[in-house]
Amino acid sequence: MLMSFTASSAAESFASWIDGSWRESDTRYPALNPATGQPFTNLAAASAQDVDIAVASAGAAFRKTRGARPATRAEWCRSAARALLAAHGELAEVLSTEHGKPVAEARGEILFAVRGLELAAESVLANGGELPQVEDANKRAIVRREGLGVWAVITPWNFPVNIPVEYIGPALASGNAVVWKPAPTTAVVAAKFREILLAADFPQELLQLVITNEVEVASHLVTHPGIAAVGFTGGSGTGRSIAKSAWDKKLLLELGGNSPIVVLGDADLEIAAAAISNAAFWNAGQVCSAAGKVLVAASCADELARLLAKRAADTVVGSPLDPDVTMGPVHLESGIARYDRLVADARERGATVVTGGERIKDKDGFFYHPTVITSVGRDAAVFSEETFGPIASLTVFDDEEDMIAAANAGDFGLVGALFTTDLSKGFRLGERIDCGLVVVNDTTNYWEYSLPFGGAAGRHSGRGRLGGRWVIDEFSQVKTLAIDIR
């Protein structure tokens, strides 16, 4: 039985929800609070046999409900949205405690997810069929969309409510079933979210929850013969492995990024600094669209570095449950070693650390100083790798053409940004940045559910699109009915 959440209790455990009930296990692992570095509860880990049961239950639910009309499925999503909205305050505390993001950001994430469920309902109702013209006078053809079957959905820890909704909402709206495996380090949030959705009016077996910290169990889910499609948000390396092992399934992959941010000499630097600091420090920089390589014109590089350093200094770092805090701990202690490596490498190659660049030593937990680095060389690891932490790194350029070439260099192509007061340049140069989404004069973290989101072709940032009507296309397949009327 799933017990109520209390941040101080380590005796309770949180379990998978499979085939209509909470499924306990003798195999357990701890859930950590990144603000303290200490366990606060534990989780029951599912087995491969549990995966088999979950897939079978989801498959049976899919077959039972595949005739449900779009209006019915849309109401399932609206009902889920109402349930989530009613419990968002309680869930925000769990999210903040387990993840480490400030509680205000946690509430914002959950409310954004509410909107995601509502928009999934709207999108499926707006996605009508077609009546193509055919040459055979005795035939009439109808082209419609229908669900694929059972999806394996594997989600990361950085947005443990909103990213699952990006998949679960469209999946339910499009007539699919889902076996959801959340990140093991934010599985308490997932269990509480699943518990909240029990109050929603949809066939509950359409959404199975499998909690595990075992790679073998996750691999069994991805390759399971009962799975028709796989949705995954996470690192590019894991995405590549999934693509290889699940080659026979429909794939929707939203992977890594190293967002290029081009700041031209005519940019409004106050606007640019506000947007870049948001991209670097919001959610402690743990966003696939976070600030990657900031490519700044030499004429304004010093001033931009000064403005970013001031915003870093104004960032209030501390307990995520403190309402005055604007940046909590990073989620994983292992991330700190990566940030240290990237900062040290940049220094060795001639970069200057303007502020930050190290762990906060007078706090328990996994805290890192908001960091600004300038004069970063193109040979530095931070120039080409996904940082996934609170670091803004600036590389100085004299030539706009060189800036665009540098923006397009490397393996990633998820989100980019461009800052200029010249609207023509904004269009012309923005169109040349090879990313799935390019934002002019705002943060790379800008996105709305109504917009398509995904990586550019030929890069390591994924395939397919989340968002709006485009994600409905991903979660459905085209079927043609040709009817002879003689």
From TrEMBL:
**UniProt cross-references to Pfam families, sorted A to Z:** Aldedh
Q: Which keywords does UniProt give here?
A: Oxidoreductase
Task: Identify the catalytic residues.
Answer: E254
Entry-linked InterPro entries:
Ald_DH/histidinol_DH, Ald_DH_C, Ald_DH_CS_CYS, Ald_DH_CS_GLU, Ald_DH_N, Aldehyde_DH_dom, Aldehyde_DH_Superfamily
Matching entries from CDD domains are given as: ALDH
Q: Which SUPFAM superfamilies does UniProt cross-reference here?
A: ALDH-like
GO biological-process terms attached to the record:
gamma-aminobutyric acid catabolic process
Give residue ranges for domain Aldehyde dehydrogenase: 22-480
Q: Which GO terms describe its molecular function?
A: succinate-semialdehyde dehydrogenase (NAD+) activity
Tell me which family the UniProt entry assigns to this protein: Belongs to the aldehyde dehydrogenase family.
Q: Return the protein name.
A: Aldehyde dehydrogenase
